[in-house]
Amino acid sequence: MKPTEAQPSRRREMRFSGHPISPGIGIGPVYEASEPVLNIQHKKIAAADIAAETARLEDAISLSRKQLIKLKTKLASLPEQSQTEIDPLIDAYLHMLGNSRLIRGARLRVSDTLLAPEAAVMDEAEAQAEAILALTGSDKVGRQRRAEEVREIARRILRNLTRLPFRNFTELKPGTILAAESLRPADAALIQPTNFAGIITAEGGADGHTAVMLRALGLPAVLGATGVLEAARPGMLAIIDGEAGEIILNPTARSLAAAQARLAERARNLRTLARLQKAPAETTDHVAVELQANLELPFEIPMIAESGAHGIGLLRSEFIFMNREALPDEDTQTQIYRDIIEAMGGDPVTIRVLDWGSDKEVEALAEYTPDTAEANPALGLRGIRLLLRHPDLFETQLAAILRASAAGPVRIMLPMVGFRAEIIAAWEIYDRVWRRLKRRNVRMAETRPPLGIMIETPAAA
């Protein structure tokens, strides 16, 4: 059903709360965008049908790849932050649609256990997702995210196998508040920010790709609002407060007037902040203050310029190693660092080398972390101690940073340093890598980038 014009009525006002995702006030009629529910049954196939059923599976995989490649071409219409968030995710999906464990496992379930492709894909994806969630450590959010990525690519294959349609937003009226049971990153990539007043979901939280993308889109968004879908009716007027995580259905005239006043106030504040962004960072007695940004993921780069910061004071390099089955090689790391440095346009970039430990799980780094649980992972084998234990890992990253330093000013930061001996050992490795690249006439910065430490342990302080 298409949304209709809605005004505050005499029906009872209803309030709901959820996770605040993206700040802002949205006012408009609610429309729920649903999609047909997958209903997969465990069917067996005859041995004589293995080839035909395998071919059907391969067709669904191929179609899934084509859909994702087409989706990548649509990213140009999204804000740059959203493009940067979804593009690596689509690449990860495309990788999983290659000769990954998910695909290999699904094929084996068809050929060896005579499961129909639908059941084979569902069972294999669920087995892998459960294995990821069963891992131990403090990075629970990361495990949940990786498990959901496996399930998401399986859902795409299953929809293509069953020919069930995907979610479609094209018929929604501009100014709608979009409501859904849940939104996946591929759904968020189809959202045109100018077409919607806000986003509401009954499931989801503040972590994950979807939340990051919605923040980048700049739309007021509240996720995980239990009960809102059951109460909403198509075209019902709603107010969404993406900062407080509150939703009002069927608002009274008083609530509507208050929301409109907050909306106007927010617009004034944004105009004021836009003017302040261009003002110099200095104290009232005109002492200049160096203002730099922390960067955890590349999609945040455009936000640095918007904030008025000049340079990156801390680039956390861990994202380069995540969502990978194998370590990124020197060339891959070099390109990533170079892209970030070039994007900063001559402003300095401080890169913290890998800070990883046994409390986090990434497949590419599994062989470098302890097999047994540590009493206190923060004080265990992590940061500089891990890198000195595995100098090949350290040298590859240092070489990549040095090669990228040709693109602009760079500084290198060592994490979790506790003793002077660790600094000396790290410097010796750094010096060795610098000299090796110099002998090979590799293009780098003219002078060796500074090497420093992060003061974050009692021993270092």
Description:
The strands form two sheets. An eight-stranded mixed β-sheet has the order 1-8-7-3-4-5-6-2. Strands 9-10-11-12-13 form a five-stranded parallel β-sheet, with helices on one face. It has 461 residues and is of the alpha/beta class. The N and C termini lie far apart (63 Å). It has three domains: 14-33 and 169-276, Glucose Oxidase, domain 1, CATH 3.50.30.10; 47-162, PtsI, HPr-binding domain (Enzyme I, Chain A, domain 2, Orthogonal Bundle); 293-453, Phosphoenolpyruvate-binding domains (TIM Barrel, Alpha-Beta Barrel). The chain has helices spanning 50-73, 80-96, 101-113, 117-133, 140-162, 185-188, 209-217, 228-231, 253-276, 301-307, 330-343, 384-389, 391-404, 420-439; strands spanning 14-17, 19-22, 25-32, 176-180, 196-201, 221-223, 237-241, 246-249, 293-295, 312-316, 349-352, 410-414, 451-453. Helix 11 links the parallel strand 10 and strand 11 (349-352). The chain contains 14 helices and 13 strands. Helix 3 crosses helix 4 (117-133), helix 4 packs antiparallel against helix 5 (140-162) and helix 13 (391-404) crosses helix 14.
Descriptive key words:
single chain, 461 residues, Glucose Oxidase, domain 1, TIM Barrel, 3 domains, eight-stranded mixed β-sheet, five-stranded parallel β-sheet, 14 helices, globular, disordered N terminus
CATH superfamily of the largest domain: Phosphoenolpyruvate-binding domains
- CATH topology assignment of the largest domain: TIM Barrel
Overall mean confidence score, pLDDT: 85
| CATH level-two architecture of the largest domain | Alpha-Beta Barrel
> What's the total count of β strands?
13
